[in-house]
Here is the input.
Amino acid sequence: MSPTRSRASAAHATGVPAPGGLAVDPVVAEELVTRVNAWFARAGRDLPWRSPEASPWGVFVSEVMSQQTPLSRVEPAWRRWMERWPTPAALAADAPGEAVRAWDRLGYPRRALRLHEAATAMVERHGGDVPDSYDELLALPGVGPYTAAAVTVFAHRQRAVVVDTNVRRVQARAVTGLALPAPALTRAESELAGDLVPSDDQAALTWNVAVMELGALVCTARSPRCGACPVLDLCAWQLAGAPAYDGPIRRGQAWAGTDRQVRGALLAVLRAAPADVGAADLRAAWPDDDATRERCLAGLIEDGLVDALGGGRYGLPA
Here is the structure.
């Protein structure tokens, strides 16, 4: 047995990351992929952007919408969006403020502006098409490594390595024996993810979506459903006795009374209005804290989500 395989096998059996990085026995990796892909064929959710008929633009929109947002909230918004703007050119021809309006309560509304900017770039640089290379996708406004990789795989069915929080959690448990991954993505994790992705384009497509789905539905951060896991007997975390997480404390994001809540309340007024609104309308949206409201309004203007029209009038970006 080669030193690398021996080291990887020991890491998988003990749950201790291999020196110099993370590794997995190729035999174990193949079995993980086979079982998780088979589980996905039975249990994966039937989402419209996963359909073979979904356009690359539909996949692109789904990936932007799904960042930090539950898919149960994304699907109805995605359907409305695709009915109104079925192509990048359709969105680019409309005002960016209409994208913000249609974003509704998905959260992190700057994503709506980035989608509009990306659609405009697709029209200007790519003839209205979603580019099919990772580098060209990465060059689009607001597109980072995750989105570029996801669209490469799911829209264009080319092999790439997609790593999100669900993938990291499955890897941490199944391969390295840890309850949860590190707070931030490490190079070793990225390399491990690359080692697990099959070389075949179709198998890579299935694995990338299947391992994310496993993390979302079964290998969850809290109360994982280990009894329903297709790789329970291979899981290094279970083989190590399911040790508790002992890393940095993870705190959930607060909402009530935060700037995010105030910004959302102000944007809700602007989205609901058929035209611009006055300062009094915005005061009514958050009447009890003038300083916070004004700070949040200034931040929305700076972020390009609100236009200050003069005379105490405000509107969505034209």
Observations:
- The two ends are 65 Å apart (CA to CA).
